[in-house]
């Protein structure tokens, strides 16, 4: 959010994933085990100013490196607690005090608040429940900075939206050599305007791994391997920022279709600690046991040939049942990857073992609810026909919550 976003949309990598992860060991990435909430603002109390013990203001109209058009104020006309347990940041077409912007007399006001000098943290879950504004030229964001030496100290954008793409949330990282238009990010299009309702936007951030979520559904992740040899700068404290920009290189500018004022309403912001909880499994993986049959995902005959159809079998601790969650999102055993047969993502597609090939269809994630979800299909690994016997076949299927789709690391 801080610097120019020319061609940012083209730099994004679209992805669709699912819910929060349990602690695992992932080659170069330690999955976040979410601890207790350590900081929050619920925005309760009477209508009026924000809590100065938690937030401060950025003020001015210098364009903020993006040719933005608004002047950020500390007025309750732009930033206030509404008396109904919510924060409101409102962009207006006005200039009540003769504000001067980088382009001349300012045409718009808005708000930008941050926890710098109040609160910062390394790792954890950072989440907010937000109803974003919507209209051409409006650019709401919930994001983090690692200091004032941008991009060397890092930037993690938890949620960004531009009014011309009302259905799409973006999550991004900026660092040295991958900032502005070369930033590394992903997005999710939900098919309807995000601004029609409140949504939960979050990242889970841990050593060498950041994972983005929309309403508990993972849609993007980065590790050092994602950076193509460039420097990872996300192992130190970051502070949070909430703002609504008007105009800029990425969102474009207000036009005849733009409706103002526009308000971003924030129900709450919460930060949880990160800990491995003492639950990190061995680096060589762990069994995935079905809560339905009490049997484990198994490579038949312990023979890791390409195309071997995975099955459930009595848990025996063998290498054929030791599944490691890798930093690139793959699930591996005996040096090969779990894979939907033929790359198909339809109901009934068999689950097989093949050579890891970098295809996104080989990414799986184990949710906190015990669903083993294929990232590309957003479907679950399912025991076909509810077969509880040895040799039961596995398939992709719509996630139903059934016990034949529930797995635990054992």
In short:
With 410 residues, the chain is mostly beta strands.
Radius of gyration equals 23 Å
CATH class of the largest domain, please?
A: Mainly Beta
- How helical, in percent, are the residues? under 10%
| CATH fold-level topology of the largest domain | Jelly Rolls
> Major sheet: size, sense and barrel closure?
8 strands, mixed
- Widest sheet: strand ordering: 1-17-16-15-14-21-12-5
Q: Count of DSSP helices?
A: 1
Q: Tally the beta strands.
A: 35
Task: Provide the residue-averaged pLDDT.
Answer: 88
Structural notes for this entry:
The chain has one helix and 35 strands. The chain folds into two domains: 8-275, Jelly Rolls, CATH 2.60.120.200; 288-409, Trefoil (Acidic Fibroblast Growth Factor, subunit A) (Trefoil), CATH 2.80.10. The model is unreliable at 2-30 and 277-284 (pLDDT under 50). The chain has an eight-stranded mixed beta sheet. Strands 4, 7, 8, 13, 18, 19, 20 and 22 form an eight-stranded antiparallel beta sheet that branches. It starts with 7 loop residues before the first helix and ends with a strand. The chain has 410 residues and is mainly β.
